[in-house]
Design a protein that fits this description.
elongated; 14% strand; alpha+beta; 71 residues; 2 helices; 56% helix
Amino acid sequence: MNEIGKILVVVGIALVIVGGLLWLGFGKWLGKLPGDVHYTRGDFSFHFPIVTCVIISIVLTIILWLFQRPK
C-alpha cells in the first residue's frame, strides 16, 4: 500500500505544477500549432489539435520512461 500512496502523491504534485504553469500562461500555444485542424463554416466550427496531442504524448512518454524503475 505504501507504493500506491507514493505514486498518488507524486501524481498530485505533478498535476499541481502543470496546472500552475498553465494558469500562468505557459500553455498559450497549446492547440494553436501548425498542423492542428481548425475548420469553420457558418455556424459550424470543428477543432482537432492533432499536433498538440502528438507533442503531449511524446513528452509524457519521455517523462514516464525516465521515471521507470528496473525491477
